[in-house]
Amino acid sequence: MVLTTSTLLFAVSCVLPSAMGLTLNVPTSAVSNGAMPVTWTPAAGDPKFTLIMHDGAEGIDVATAIDPTTGNTTVNLGGIPTGSYTLEAVNAADIEKSLSTTTAFQVTAAGAAGAGDNAGGGAAAGDSTTAVAAETTTAAAATGTAAAGTASAGGPAFDPAGAKNVGNGAGGQFIGGQCLNAADCASGCCAGPSGICSGVGAQTQAGKTGCGFVSGQSSLTSSAVADAGDNAAAATTAAAATGTAAAGTASAGGPAFDPAGAKNVGNGAGGQFIGGQCLNAADCASGCCAGPSGICSGVGAQTQAGKTGCGFVSGQSSLTTAAAAAGNAAAAAPASTGAAVAGTASAGGPAFDPAGVKNVGNGKAGQFIGGQCLSAADCASGCCAGPSGICSGVGAQTQAGKTGCGFVSKRFVGRFVSSKGREMLA
Q: Residue 297: which residues within 8 A CB-CB, separation 6 or more?
């Protein structure tokens, strides 16, 4: 066979990133139903990207809206079968634009010899896991940021590169990094049992117990949570007994609480909707309890209307009502219902809020709850719920006719959701 110049150029183009930008490294350890560390070399101007694993027959979207400047992340391979794969990085806002693709590597069964041999090394899966755990422990000791809830409590090991993002509430922690509560995580989901930032669709995979983790290092202790719950219940009971409603906003400032959410205050169940009072992020379906008074907020709106950002933690309830806010919400409903939005909720579920039209399909995580979405990358909450594609709080993903997080529009380059809840490429 004679190799021509054009043939060689085509072969090179299959493995080199477009425009010589971001370069993915071949994963060195990939275990089915386990974790796969991914590293890359960024270049100036790289956009946020999505990672897709290809097995030759289909593509599996395993991570979205990744910040290229971090240089690494950890992907959970829950439901990914063993076999040969390539890993591709595509522009999160336009998945037709490929940024980089690796050569083939193997996803192996847990405990199989050679799980860490993808890059030519000789370490077995157990050795690779030990090395990651040792690296995590060393990094935590060096930086002094090891929280009381380390990975020893269960779940995947923390990515040591994220040590600098732990506990600052800046929303800069990447998936796989340690968190003390949801305010640390770019994804808005701090998953138990140890506190690790997770993608919303993967919050119960690889030993994780779901979003809503709040560390004991937080100013809110477990006893305070219990006391706060009792206080909230007492406030609710008192209001019901007297039949009176104390009008006005939260005493510390910010928007008024929606009184309909009184039953969700302080129980840490993640059932509080946007606008309801919260004692910490664990109360909120959105994973964001915003100051200065403690109100559940969409991540993208955490500093609007007098709010001071996610991360609020309180030891007591100052439950008030907000008839004005409730009235405004009721008045806005007909406008939402009657508005003509591209790709309306004809497939079912709640009507889209027309104010969010500008945020649809750009993958910038700026869409608020109630706005239309084409995938989770659009939503500040990280949850794009079916059947029509509407940004939702995680705890409310199956309410009001919604069918749960994980919706991906067919307008989004033919993606569909598999039976395992993963985003796939046709």
A: 274, 284, 286, 288, 289, 290, 307, 310
> 302: how many CB neighbours lie within 10 A of its CB?
23
Take residue 114 and report the two structure tokens written for it: 């050679």
> Could you check whether the bond before residue 17 is cis, i.e. omega within 30 degrees of 0?
no
Which own/partner pairs from 203-207 qualify as long-range (CB within 8 Å, at least 24 positions apart)? 203/394, 205/33, 205/76, 205/78, 205/79, 206/33, 206/34, 206/35, 206/76, 206/77, 206/78, 206/155, 206/156, 207/154, 207/155, 207/156
- How far is the C-alpha of 278 from the C-alpha of 273, rounded, in Å? 9
What letter does residue 210 receive in the DSSP assignment? Answer: -
**Contact at 8 Å (CB) between 50 and 16?**
no
Q: Which residues pair with 290 in a beta bridge?
A: 295, 310
Question: What is the H or E stretch that residue 197 is in?
Answer: strand 196-197
CA distance 408 to 197: 22
Residues 307-343: tens digit of each pLDDT: 888 888 875 333 333 333 333 333 333 333 333 344 4
Task: Name the residue ranges covered by the structural domains of the chain.
Answer: 5-107, 125-202, 244-324, 342-425
pLDDT of residue 119 exceeding 70 = no
Maximum CA pair distance of the chain?
90
Superfamily holding 5-107: Immunoglobulins (2.60.40.10)
| DSSP letters spanning 26-78 | PPS--BTTSEEEEEEE--TTPPPEEEEEE-SS-EEEEEEEE-GGG-EEEEE-T
347 CB-side CA count, 13 A: 14
Token duo for residue 48: 């946020």
229 vs 336: CA distance, rounded Å: 34
Range with top average pLDDT, 99-103, 260-264, 339-343: 99-103
What is the 3-state secondary structure of 309-348?
Answer: CECCCCCCCCCCCCHHHHHHHHHHHHHHHHCCCCCCCCCC
Neighbour-count burial for 127-160, b at 16+ CB within 10 Å, e otherwise: ebbeebeebbbebbeeeebbbebbbeeebbbbbb
Rounded Cα distance between 86 and 389, Å, is 29
